[in-house]
Amino acid sequence: MDGVEEAIARAAQLFSAASAVVCLTGAGVSAESGVPTFRDAQTGLWSRFDVEELATPQGFERDPGLVWRWYMWRLQQLGAAAPNHGHAALADLAGLCGDFLLVTQNVDDLHEQAGSADVLHLHGTLSNYRCAACAAPHQLTIEERRADSPPACGLCGEPVRPDVVWFGENLPWDAVEEAVAAAQDCDVMLVVGTSGLVYPASQLPLVAKQAGAAVIDVNPEPGPISTIADIFLQGRSGELLPALARAVAGRRVNH
Ligand code: OAD
Predict the structure, then answer these.
(1) CB 251 within 8 A of CB 16
(2) Environment class of residue 85 by beta-carbon count within 10 Å: exposed (0-12), middle (13-18) or buried (19+)?
(3) CB 3.0-4.6 Å disulfide test: which of 17, 28, 223, 241 passes with 89?
(4) Which is catalytic among the residues 87, 111, 123, 138?
(5) Residue 111 known to be catalytic
(6) How many domains does the chain contain in total?
(7) What is the whole-number distance in angstroms between the Cα of residue 117 and the centre of ligand 1?
């Protein structure tokens, strides 16, 4: 067995022995679907766009049209993206484990499209919209998607915004609470495709580790999560996660 194969076999062993697994995903899991990450050099969104202008409430107040057009561009990009083998493998893994909670920082719905149920979205989703002032939900029309500026809320007339978490904003409290409780209670924390730089999601692997869980990190690059991980599966999630799911399924057949 080479190093990766051996690491996958060890990871599969941990999965087989676990009664509760939490998986935390970031932008990297969708990279092989053609969805850009945020911090990868050259290709990451934050290397090409200004986070202050596009992903803060102050940026939206200053120039709602600019923010609107950027999110409508991303929504269009997502419309053309399909789940990859990594998303599919996570849906398979859920069926092979006892309790399996999928927590994502991603605003796409590629996990759901791949068949994962009950996905906890810590940063909201790009398919939901709400009034920036009164928070009333808003259903986008095709014309609004193509417009240069956000529609007005039907109730109060203020601009509508994507229902995603911007920098400086609180995460949905229920989702954070559920994710932290699950991290404290799990036997295995599988972390996939995140730089581990954005609080509070970045703390979940640490919470799990401190509570005694094994941490497995899947990422082509080492980072803050791989340094605390018990197993670092270095490579692309679209390749490594299917191999992991096969190894876990194989152990079930053989035991
Ligand atoms: P980042 O862009 O910070 O990190 C993406 C990670 O994915 C990096 O560690 C890459 O090495 C890794 N990666 C790239 N290709 C991969 C592949 N094929 N398989 C596996 N991993 C791969 O994205 P996040 O960590 O998700 O927040 O960023 C966290 C948050 O910062 C996002 O949710 C977003 C952003 O600003 C908000 O919008 C609130």
Answers:
(1) yes
(2) buried
(3) 241
(4) 123
(5) no
(6) 2
(7) 22
Is residue 234 located within the same domain as residue 134?
no
Range of the domain at 183: 3-34+83-123+171-254
Tell me the per-residue pLDDT of 120-175, one tens digit each, with 9 for 90 and over. 999 999 999 999 999 999 999 999 999 999 999 999 999 999 999 999 999 999 99
192 DSSP β-pair partners: 25, 218
Q: Which atom of ligand 1 is nearest to the CA of 37?
A: 2
Q: Which residues line ligand 1 (CB under 6 A)?
A: 26-28, 31-32, 37-40, 44, 55, 105, 123, 165, 193-195, 197-198, 218-221, 223, 236-238
Tens of pLDDT, residues 17-72: 999 999 999 999 999 999 999 998 788 988 889 999 999 999 999 999 999 999 99
Q: What is the CATH number of the domain that holds 69?
A: 3.30.1600.10
Percent of the chain at pLDDT exceeding 70: 99
CB 226 within 8 A of CB 217: yes
